[in-house]
Design a protein that fits this description.
Pfam family, one: Amidohydro_1
Structural class: alpha/beta
Bound molecules: N-(aminocarbonyl)-beta-alanine, zinc ion
Oligomer: single chain
Number of strands: 20
Shape: globular
Keywords: Phosphoprotein
InterPro entries: Amidohydro-rel (IPR006680), Hydantoinase/dihydroPyrase (IPR011778), Metal-dep_hydrolase_composite (IPR011059), Metal_Hydrolase (IPR032466), Metallo-dep_Hydrolases_sf (IPR050378)
GO molecular function: hydrolase activity, acting on carbon-nitrogen (but not peptide) bonds
Largest sheet: 10 strands, mixed
Protein name: D-hydantoinase
Length: about 500
């Protein structure tokens, strides 16, 4: 048989193994793994010699906001900066083959299915990665809750995100319980943004009353205790609904992580996500001259250096199930919808309460984490790909390299490329954003090839993005795989 693509001489890394295998691809699937070098002469349309390289399942980033209305900022008519086209272009250049982003229930919109239809129109034909949707639920009205069944069974959407903060999104505890109950009945995973919105609004008023408006006070308005309290409450609410699984997203605070760990030790199905901003940024990044600190305003805010270390430990010991980007960019210079929208003559360094929350990071997630070399290679694959596939009902089609079963979604790294120190600059990235919070940060490696269902989409040294948009397809997802919330110890 003639294969479509053969990758020879590489070292394959999965969540469980590091082994020298060749891989053969036919009709978008991995069809064969064979001892290293044995397929070097195989009949194939294309052969990639991965000598000295690592071949891994493509990155799966299940937390991105693309072309989303900024309903989390009071009064804003803005949208997040990246479209489905530019966001997935950036994703693939950073080694990702699948993303899951949000289909937001608009203000006053009762139907979740309508939100899904709107989002399909934005994404169809525009993507460079495969993609799915989570519904973002701001109004758990009876119709919307009833639609969970159709979402799951017909639309292939098996996750919902809810918020414990942001005036336009925040759910009361009784509403959270209704979501959890319906999610449980339909095997939908509930993602929870755990910050106490009432407390942070009160603190924001207090800070403003003291004349504290600058971006750095965003951090003071969201102290760790407010994340830990909401995390604890979400865990308690899940326990009331017969321990229905929840995923606590973008955890930044070690005391919240400790609370999660305690629940996991007690056998509760509590899953947690962290993000590069809690590993590579600190609260000092918000304290830059003028309004520059706004470039790192996200929620929860970046914490301290020692908190970063604790979050790394949580990734290594499986308190965290996934490392996602929470890519939610707003242009810095945009006076209407972007970060600058709150800067005016009266507030020359802006008002932090109106800075759109969120930063770009879909392209830098894997290069930053790979280069930091603080996780075993298998653990790196687990938290950046395989566990996301398992949590969100994509496994083993995605996040694995099982012949005959897995899509040929791969990322190839050549650690011996000796790229030296690459200094990240915004100009090298493929998003539609005018800054990166990681400007000047050094990484030692960058994905050389990203392969989606057997098609090379990203070829770092051979033209960059080498595929047309539209190569990415919508993926219908099933239920979460059976998985322990702590996969080791
Ligand atoms: O600051 C953040 N994280 N913005 C994105 C919206 C969200 O809550 O994930
Ligand atoms: Zn309503
Ligand atoms: Zn959130
Ligand atoms: Zn988010």
């Amino acid at each position: 048989m003639e294969y479509d693509l053969v990758i020879t001489n590489g070292v394959c890394v999965t969540a469980s193994d590091v082994a020298a295998w060749d891989i053969a691809i036919k009709d978008e699937k991995i069809v064969l793994q064979a001892p290293s070098g044995s397929l070097a002469e195989a009949k194939a349309k294309r052969i990639i010699d991965a000598q000295g390289g690592y071949v891994m399942p493509g990155g799966i980033d299940c937390h991105a906001h693309l072309d989303e209305p900024a309903i989390f900022i009071k009064g804003s008519n803005g949208r997040s900066a990246d479209s489905w086209e530019t966001g997935t272009r950036s994703a693939v250049a950073g080694g990702n083959t699948t993303i899951v982003a949000f289909a937001p229930q608009g203000k006053g919109q009762h139907s979740l299915l309508a939100a899904v239809e709107t989002t399909h129109k934005l994404a169809t034909g525009n993507c460079y990665t495969d993609y799915g949707f989570h519904v973002l639920m701001s109004d758990p009205n009876p119709q919307a809750l009833d639609e969970f069944k159709t979402l799951k069974e017909k639309e292939g959407i098996s996750s919902v995100k809810i918020y414990m903060t942001y005036t336009a999104l925040q759910l009361r505890d009784d509403q959270i319980l209704s979501v959890l109950l319906n999610a449980r009945q339909n095997e939908i995973l509930t993602m929870v943004h755990a910050e106490n919105g009432d407390v942070l609004n009160w603190l924001t008023d207090q800070l403003e009353a003291q004349g504290k408006f600058a971006p750095k006070y965003h951090s003071n308005s969201r102290p760790p205790v407010l994340e830990a309290e909401a995390t604890n409450r979400a865990i308690a609410l899940s326990s009331l609904i017969a321990n229905t699984p929840i995923l606590l997203v973008h955890i930044s605070d070690p005391s919240a992580a400790n609370r999660i760990r305690i629940a996991q030790n007690a056998g509760q199905p509590i899953f947690a996500e962290t993000c590069p901003q809690y590993l590579f940024l600190t609260r000092d990044d918000l304290d830059k001259p003028g309004f520059e600190g706004a470039k790192c305003v996200c929620s929860p805010p970046p914490r301290t250096k020692s908190d970063q270390d604790a979050i790394w430990t949580g990734l290594a010991n499986s308190t965290f199930t996934v490392l996602s980007s929470d890519h939610c960019p707003f242009k810095y210079e945009d006076k209407e919808a972007g970060k600058q929208c709150c800067v005016n003559d009266e507030y020359p360094v802006g008002r932090f309460r109106y800075i759109p929350n969120g930063i770009p990071g879909i392209e830098t997630r894997l290069p930053l984490a790979f280069s930091a070399a603080r996780l075993a290679l298998t653990k790196f694959v687990e938290v950046s790909s395989t566990n996301a596939a398992k949590l969100y009902g994509l496994y083993p089609r995605k996040g694995a390299m099982i012949p005959g079963v897995s899509d040929a979604d791969l990322v190839i790294w050549y650690p011996q490329d000796k790229l030296g120190d690459i200094s990240i600059t915004n100009s090298m990235l493929h998003h539609d954003v005018d800054y990166t919070p990681y400007e000047g940060k050094r990484v030692q490696n960058w994905p050389r090839y990203t392969i989606l269902r057997g098609n090379v989409v990203w070829d770092r040294d051979g033209g960059g993005i080498v595929s047309e948009k539209g190569v990415g397809q919508f993926v219908k997802r099933g239920s979460k795989a059976r998985m322990s919330s702590m996969q080791c110890e």
